[in-house]
User: What shape does this take?
Amino acid sequence: MNILEIKHCRKSFDGVQVLSDISLTVSEGQVVSIIGPSGSGKSTLLRCATLLETMDGGSLAYLGKFAVRDEGGKSVYASHAELKQARACFGLVFQNFNLFPHYTVLKNITAAPLLIQKREKAEVLQTARDLLSKMGLADREDAYPYQLSGGQQQRVSIARALAMRPKILFFDEPTSALDPELTGEILKVIRALAAEHMTMVIVTHEMAFARDVSDHVIFMDGGVIVEQGNPKDIINNPSHERTIQFLSRFN
Assistant: This one.
């Protein structure tokens, strides 16, 4: 089953085309990594997919239901209720954690399931504590974000996204704000999620990780998909000149 379908996505800022005719499909249990140079449109694509940015053209569907339809080359957004349904399908982990500084770790994780999803408090608390345990943070539930390392904060933000029971998780360069040691911590968590067949789309600069953990790799440059396919083929034997040039810096 396709969790996400984006067709012919276009996006401009102040007349500058940032995304040109991007189409991608993510099926259940698939891990898709998006790689490419800074300014290639990767993060904008993620922001369009998660309804944080408005598409100019193209369509977007979750579980076969349209959040955005393409009508005559223009993107037309669904009703408020339908967009709310679409938002319930995904979780998003940012590069700079975006935790509420005045909430404890536990409250950061439980706030949205309680307020937005109106779930039972006992069940939400149990889920949050299970996730903290899984993240190796069982003893930090009463801490505040400023008392945690960057790696710990990022693990809390992953737990917060998972607490909403999303069908798909988006990661926007989840390790770019971390030093190499803490990067390893986060990549280990994402590897564990991949082993559990969590559907994920990951914008990353970690090439070895993208090659080893993904089912599919997309290389973007200049707002278009230049090359995509099997991770080992793309990263070890790219066929497009631009991909070869980009990856030569990592090999």
Notes: The chain is about 35% helix and 30% strand. The longest strand covers residues 2-13.
